[in-house]
Amino acid sequence: MKKQTEKTITCCDNCQTDEHVFNNCAGCGKDFCFNCDKSKNVGQKFSGAVSFSGSGDCYICTTCLANPTPTVQAILAAYLTIRQLRNESKAFYENFEKRVKEAEAKVRIIVSKYNL
Ligand SMILES: [Zn+2]
Ligand SMILES: [Zn+2]
Fold it and tell me: How sure is the predictor about 37, in pLDDT bands with cuts at 50, 70 and 90?
């Protein structure tokens, strides 16, 4: 017996393919395939834009970037804040690691000096 189903398939809003479509614009909701993203400059991916520690990427199409709605402006502003916080966090931990290494080096000097 054959069952008839109706399935919604996501297709690329640029080239209409239904293969490798996984970029969804957060501004207008349009979908774009891998090939259009790579070769046709249809949008930009904002890595880790959704949460500070998470990996949720945000995609915004070039049309929305050229003419950002208040929502897209808010996403971009939030992304810049997250990027800034990540840079601060990275700088802090680099400095922290450096201080830990310096402290460990001091301990090694004491250990070798007093034959501990
Ligand atoms: Zn496409
Ligand atoms: Zn868009």
Answer: very high
Q: Which ligand is nearest to the CA of 39?
A: 1
**pLDDT tens, residue by residue, 65-81:** 999 999 889 888 888 88
Q: What share of the chain is helix, strand, coil (3-state, %, to 5)?
A: 45, 15, 40
Whose atoms come closest to the Cα of 61: which ligand?
A: 2
How many whole angstroms from 6 Cα to the centroid of ligand 1? 23
> From the CA of 18, which ligand is nearest?
1
pTM of the model: 0.66
Please state, in angstroms and rounded to a whole number, the distance separating the CA atoms of residues 23 and 115: 62
Residue 73: the pLDDT is: 92
Domain ranges (residues) in the chain: 22-113
